[in-house]
Amino acid sequence: MQSLLHDQRVGIITPYEYAATITEVCQSNLKEVKGAFPLKNNTRAAINWLSLEEQEWRYLLSANADSSIDLWDTNSGEGINEGEKITRLIHVPRKSAHTYGVLCIQWYPRDTGMFVTSSFDHTVKVWDTNEFSPVHEFNVDQRVYSIDVLESATVAVGLDQLFIRLLDLRSAASAHTLSGHKGKTLSVKWHPLHTNVLASGGYDGEVRIWDIRRSKSCLCRLDMLKTADGDDITEFNYVKHIRIPSVKAHLGPVNGLTWDSSGTLLYSAGNDDKVRVWDMTLPSPPPTNLLINFGPLTRNKYPQTIPLLLNHRHESNSPMLFFPSDNGDVYGFRAADGKLICRLHRSSSTKFTAQQDRTTAMVRGSPFLSKYIHGTANGALVMWAPMFDLPTATQVFGDLVHDDDEEYELISTVEAEQKRLCLRQEAKRKGIELG
Description:
- The chain is 14% helix and 34% strand.
- It is α+β, with helices and mostly antiparallel strands.
- The strands form 7 sheets. A 4-stranded antiparallel β-sheet has the order 1-28-27-26, with no helix packed on it. Strands 2-3-4-5 form a 4-stranded antiparallel β-sheet, with no helix packed on it.
- It is globular and about 65 Å long.
- WD repeats lie at residues 58-82, 95-137, 178-213, 247-280.
């Protein structure tokens, strides 16, 4: 640690490299913050989705299975110290906005003045945050499984149907449909850089890449048999590739998708208990399966959208992928090679079955803080943050005799210095200047 501090001070490593190294250590020491969120008063309904705005990294939206919606202020009390709980600012009662469970919720990417919700009641609703009420409603005539909101005010909607619907928030109309999946669409994700590119995962085990500007919108389907070591050197035949039934990304429904921040890698999860990584940079389609093995611990048997979560870009030297397993644990893998880095296990999970305690929603906190918030099927919100057990003065100095006044004073001074450093770190995190 001292050599790391020295290298940062003299400029051998950049501040970003220093922060990334510290963050990697923190991410391997994530622990549950007890009592960060208050227990729900009226319901134990599952939390279907979470969305944290990325302007202040402060306001958290939660969509609940009993059709209620909550807005939380994650900066209230920080939820770190004992007795400090994160405040729920607004609660929308059940059946007051949606008649069935709210399955997805997402902030508009540019600001916090608007967010979008979807439900099994066949509606997608646009909300005004100031009034905290819906201002427009899209009736899509099908159950909605997944949505993703683009900065250009386009919403991709995965439906219980053979097509994906694109909604235009500016014209308040359905702008386009993308047909191709042979069953319901469980997951949709826009490309982080190219706003015309969309990835979708379906109940048919397919992952499709779309270009919404083209008349033939489907660019390709991901094939789990197409690898970098493959001997298939034949020329790409678009018609054959699109129509051949054996092209699959997973041997089961695909219910999780996420891009990396540069859009060069796509991560997919399916009900075959597999997580696959796809190289999207090849000049000719289809993309290749990188064959990264994430081990035997991943369990994914529920055909509903699950959150795949990557940590922030530049937050660590190697990206981490968080996967919510059906056994109730969340596994943090090194995305480059699938090595298990951390396992997030709730101490209170013994009170519930694995089905009740499994993680159904996840969001990441502000960059370089290594904070994560999870929602579970039993209605609990859980915060994870790095925590370290600081050694006591006795552990540092060994068998010093406490009866000796000089040595006892030395130990007391060290303990006081530890407390002072902890208070200074807490004040720095809250933005308080200390003299």
